[in-house]
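Fold this complex.
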Amino acid sequence: MPLLTMKFGGTSVSDMERMRAAASKIKREVDRGYNVIAVISAMGDTTNNLVGLVEGTSSLFDAREYDAVISTGESLASALMALVLQDLDVPARSWQGWQVPVRTTSAHGTARITGIETKGLQAKFAEGMKVAVAAGFQGVSPEGRIATLGRGGSDTSAVAFATAFNCERCDIYTDVDGVYTADPRLVANARKLEKISYEEMLELASLGAKVLQTRSVELAMRYKVRLCVRSSFNDNSGTLVCDEEDIMEQNIVSGIAQSLDEAKISILSVEDRPGVAEAVFGSLADSGVNVDMIIQTISERKLTDMTFTCPVSQVERAVNALRTARERGSVGFRDLSADTDVCKVSVVGIGMRSHTGVATKMFGALAKKDINIKAISTSEIKISVLVDRIHMERAVRALHDEFDLETAT
Amino acid sequence: MPLLTMKFGGTSVSDMERMRAAASKIKREVDRGYNVIAVISAMGDTTNNLVGLVEGTSSLFDAREYDAVISTGESLASALMALVLQDLDVPARSWQGWQVPVRTTSAHGTARITGIETKGLQAKFAEGMKVAVAAGFQGVSPEGRIATLGRGGSDTSAVAFATAFNCERCDIYTDVDGVYTADPRLVANARKLEKISYEEMLELASLGAKVLQTRSVELAMRYKVRLCVRSSFNDNSGTLVCDEEDIMEQNIVSGIAQSLDEAKISILSVEDRPGVAEAVFGSLADSGVNVDMIIQTISERKLTDMTFTCPVSQVERAVNALRTARERGSVGFRDLSADTDVCKVSVVGIGMRSHTGVATKMFGALAKKDINIKAISTSEIKISVLVDRIHMERAVRALHDEFDLETAT
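Structure:
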């Protein structure tokens, strides 16, 4: 019997009506002859509410108990889904992480899956079970404690199940019906992509597209799991995330992403001497700050200005790290300033590997709209620029037009 | 290190404030030198809400998934309690049923505990854990599924833990501060008992006193677990449920109980022949009707009337069973009538074993108040009468006065 993994996120199972809609999508695949591993997230806002309860107990809480609390959301949802499927006459049962078992590391709250035992489910499939409803986001540590995978971890659970069971496909059902060339809320003529490569999806996910969790795309890429992003609320075909080779025609640029979770920190009048960059970014790394873009202006009289970006939530940590470094004498600077009134806009496309001129075209399009670029970072298949937050929508639209993303090649 | 089991019911952990109050009671015992097994129920109305969700999926639901759903209430509450205890600097951790493990039968929804593994908890106590916060009401079946013990099952969980770990005492924290000579809401001068025997507690529990679940008292009696019923909301000493021999002075009557969950069914003009009682009560037993009191009136012309009582929820089942028996020809009768406008009032006391005249005194007291007795049942240590519901309060007060229960011997 061919196997399929189907993952339903929180908004897709937020109430009983939506759960029934999701169940009928599962039933349809069963009727087509598939056995299904359905990976279920917690209903609606459950996880946020549970996190609130934990935070109410103490500011410094035990991550193992945090995991025991928040995992109840997925345990509940998966058992309810099994009941709803049974009501549709689909032979289904729920599986909590420890029952499968899904084995994880002991890094509670951000655990990684180390393996999924297939025997238990296989035996039940052999006995006639059609759907194994697996609680997403959770597993069991070597110490026998419940461990969770971190926010959005159900995507990763789904890909891990698809890998372990060698599933034909891993369908991710969510509240959008695929991956778009840009956020449709910003760009009216954004186009849904039929296919996108793992590499591009990975860039888009880490650049702020909220469709898939970055880790799940990494995992899918490593094990060549065919991921399909689809809507829970309609029957559109969705977007297939697959190998580059499986995509016949490729635009040079596939999509535009934007992120507001970007802050710019400037360190002014830094003593310019060999090793100063190491001292600055070493102290930031030691404090766990994820630095993205870096700019260093030309130095005058042995003093230079340095600018970098990091996630908004890490600004305080970054500022503290730098002040501490100055007190210890490892870095000298006159002043520092943080600016969260910025955003990052990125163009992503595998075609950039073989085509030059993408950056020029991008910068030109922004210049035409009088949008000033405050920082730039690039990788092999993406170019990101930092601009004032007020320009975000105009920048995304300008780039979408410039690269003619409305039209498929 | 001496061990104590402390059980907290749903109203005792209904919000974070109450959870903190419960945690400080646990901490106090730890400070006195005890290691504690804290058995926790689901918070407030959680279980009812979860049952509602299950019932929303289907009218005929899989009891295994029902258990997977409702057990999340205790899993959540026990992990939160561990966090609250840790915040008070008490080394605590949560244990779900499968983690202990608490082994049960496969009778999902009404499972019985078959054993509790002690190794895991003992090892953690040896490493410095002071409180094992165990999720009440749940265990794991031989098939590795979550099984629950039925309503009020957390009391049974607590006694089972106290038995398995040979605890010095099993404290049941609830919303009343002990066992009273009568329901204090009905009888203003009801007196809290310092001690009560297992046998009496068992009668009171099954007669409608809601303080403890009947099964938990049975279990405590069998294994001689010293049960203490105490309030979560004050520091009163509570009531110790213990061996008869541990109670120095004993009133002849210890308490009065009343129950509204009693219906009277009369079968009129039954053919009076040998074997008819067997036929009537056999068909009721086959249908799962719990018959309590039975009255048969003197027969005339080969016809008799029979009256019995059963729980209100079983009236429909009883009526159907009798009609079916008549259709099949195994029982002949003219008519039947059901009356739920009645109540059962009982006096309970171990002293009855050695003292005569309790029944006479009881009937006399009710007669003085013009309360008509509609049925009677007795055991070695209790006498129950059925009266019209309208007389319930007056009957309970009259008996409380008659046996002078306000005053301890």
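Chain B has a mean pLDDT of 92.
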